[in-house]
Amino acid sequence: MTDRRLDPTRLTRRGALAGLAGALVLTGSGVARAEGTMAEIKRRGLIVATEDDFRPFEFVKDGEPAGFDNDLVAILKKEAGFPVNQQILPWTGILAGVATGKYDCAITAAIITKERSQSLDFTSPIADATHYYVKRKSDASIRGIKDLSGKTVGVQAGSALLARLPELKAMLEKDGGSLGKVVEYTSYPEAYQDLALGRTDCVVNTIINLKALVTEKPKVFEVGQPVSGKSFPAWAVKKGNTELLAFLNEFIARQKANGTFYALQRKYFGEEFRDLPVTWNPEF
């Protein structure tokens, strides 16, 4: 059973943050169609979509964009040689916006999946995104994956983590258990709030995001075990936009070569991922 907990008050709060995001567009406008060759992009400026609240990759702090991806966007603005127009948005419209040509690329931690690869091309992975569960630290009823049987699980709507819940379902069924109710949220902060209040029993997210959460609130939350196979996030462009994909991959490779990429990983993730694959063909 899936509960799409997307009530109007939450959407209003997200809309308010999106309004702030609109004020943070640094140059130009994202109204024009973003489809085009690199020559066209250089003439009109690159339209980049980033998320508004996905720590530690992207978030807004003191009215300014912050996080791993936003720091790299700031570097890209300096190095590109042409305008880079940033749109800071709620997650739910970003990938569809890239796939339909509203934005040139999504510089966000978008997990590479088979389904997404039908309409998008992805850069080299930027981190590890193996999925784990997080629970309330005070909840002694959950000590391992088998204890998640029948529990209420929170996950972000439209996310790759939602699409890979069948892996957790299979793990539970192997021990005679079953996947409980799934609650979908517009954002992870909302999911964590419900978890802290006892409205859900666990939340599934990537290990990096959950480590950041537990570091921030160690008395409230505790990371559990992995509930998926290997998974990697990357930046996305519209399917077939090979020129832009090559441009972004060259930028990533350059930041790795000069050490900036790994310094930012240490800053925001607490560790480096030096053995990431150059390309990734997902099973799911």
From TrEMBL:
- Highest taxon above the source species: Bacteria
Recorded hits in SUPFAM superfamilies, A to Z, give: Periplasmic binding protein-like II
Q: Which InterPro entries match?
A: Solute-binding_3/MltF_N, TAT_signal
Cite the Solute-binding protein family 3/N-terminal domain residue spans from the record. 45-272
- Transmembrane region positions? none
The answer on whether this UniProt entry bears the keyword Signal reads yes
* Classification via Gene3D superfamilies: Periplasmic binding protein-like II
Q: Which UniProt keywords apply?
A: Signal
> Which Pfam families does this one have?
SBP_bac_3
User: What name goes with this protein?
Assistant: L-cystine-binding protein FliY
Taxonomic source organism: Methylobacterium crusticola
